[in-house]
């Protein structure tokens, strides 16, 4: 096996690097278009006393007088005062603003609404208050994310439940083709995955790179989410844009639990991707004998005629 590994790697050349790169799962925040300093900027905003002071010192009788000011976006922080209330969880003050004319569906330059801010900062009561006052649950920000997707990303089960009860759009897609289910799976939020699967959701929805939730789940060390998806009839044989199935991906990620689960449920063992690579070939390309044994134990096999586009096989 050591000699084979050496010769196979040498023959594969640059393609071996491609295999190693594919082990790296795409970062979900990057896929959603969220910059690294996004949350840091929001923390700075929360630390500012300017907004709290103004809200706390303005009495109800004066709100109508200042409501046009309250509806303006603060130049330095890109938020309205209702959005600030949503972040801090100032339920009563937020309701006062709405009752006196604050725009519940106003968006900032990022397309974020007060409902999204309340979802991001886990203020359940504020979310309910906004929904009871005609907040639009279907609005999307510039990343095409709705409030449900933000709450899923944060792992806030209570808010996800509230939004689902109010018929949030579970099919909302980002430009990269991600839906809430993709996000919940990649973050490993089992309970939220269960909640989403209870809705009329496409369990095999593909992102722009052709990955289904099942493909993302088999990269996780815990196989519970993959089991949930399979029990909901997730398609084991869907392929990415380059022809890889969930089994290919579980092998590339060296996930023996995922491999065993897929094989037990009838995954095709000798399927080839766009480059003619079978799961067994991928297993042979990395120094992991357990991968080979797992595949072989389930009956994976290749003959001298089974070659990829580089005229190589796993024998």
From TrEMBL:
InterPro entries membership: Ankyrin_rpt, Ankyrin_rpt-contain_sf
Residue ranges of the TM segments: none
A Pfam match: Ank_2
Coiled-coil residue windows: none
UniProt keyword annotations, A-Z: ANK repeat, Repeat
ANK repeat ranges per the UniProt record: 110-142, 176-208, 209-241, 242-274, 275-307
Keyword Translocase found: no
Protein name, entry field: Uncharacterized protein
Record organism: Biomphalaria glabrata (Bloodfluke planorb)
